[in-house]
């Protein structure tokens, strides 16, 4: 029966490939400085008396301010970090960048250019044929050849005939005169002279009769000479054309080689320069990144040292001021106060933290997708219909649906199940019989196959037995 599908049966395969490259550089620098001082003074004193320790501290802090060792160390470190000095990494990146000065052609490009120049210098010259002069000579003979004319007086053959016929005529005339004179006793007479003259004239007439033949022969020679010149011109022309064709072939080959060499040189040069430019750009970017990072690190360190120095110096100077004020006050307290005992603790603390973060992230992503959809051919649809019947009747979903066996797998299983019992029977004939919807129609198909000689009567019984019908 004919295929009756409600939808297009397809097999679809597909996929995608995604490649992602991510490069991240980052860092963080944290500088923390903290400190504190705690001073506790406990003493007793009598009125009007100044303690020796108080006097010593008073004398100490009434002198001009002197930086502490920590402040001096920071000042020296700050001086040493005022001028930026490139790191080894920056110097190495710069050295590599210097290698990419002016573009220099690679050996491959030079060889391609040299090959092109050799071809340009070896172009086939102007065409010159060894048959040109011969052709010109023959051509001039043909076009300058005189028209045919015949002059028997200049014809050597005619002159030869004339000499022969004249001599023969004279001989005949003499013989005739001698014979006629013998009839009169050896004396000459008018008859003998007339008869001899007649013989002579006969030979001259024969000579004249041969002139047309000689004319024709001369004209034929003229024609033959013309034909021979034309044949020579044709042969020489053929050789000339052969040489010219060989020249054209050589010129065409040279032009093809030149075009290839030119294209190859340009391709090699463009590729070589693009690679050089890419390498140079990479080296430049690397040097710029290294220098920027290195300088930023130097600047951060310098700024941190400067901030640390200012904080330390401010703290140190303020500590000096506080101590000077304290010992001055303590001095006058001891001078003016009554008997007393005091204890004092001064505490100061400070902390500073500088944190700098940096990061650089570059990401490249390449995604390629592919898919392939194969639709059933009419023959495949007929095969499915023959194996499974109408899908709307049998409830078969021949599409690729989730959780179901694919159509091509069911097709393989169906063929195996339907034809497995056929043994050595022809599969195409099995399918042809199976297309008939009813047992009666299948019996008619088998009958037609036997009638048309497609199968024998004994084979018909085997086919009928396969489909469970009687024949």
UniProtKB/TrEMBL annotation:
It comes from the Bacteria. Residues 338-353 have a biased composition (Polar residues). Residues 1-45, 338-378 are annotated as: Disordered. Pfam families: SRR (PF07709). Residues 1-44, 359-375 have a biased composition (Low complexity). This is Uncharacterized protein. It comes from Wansuia hejianensis. The lineage of its organism: Bacteria, Bacillati, Bacillota, Clostridia, Lachnospirales.
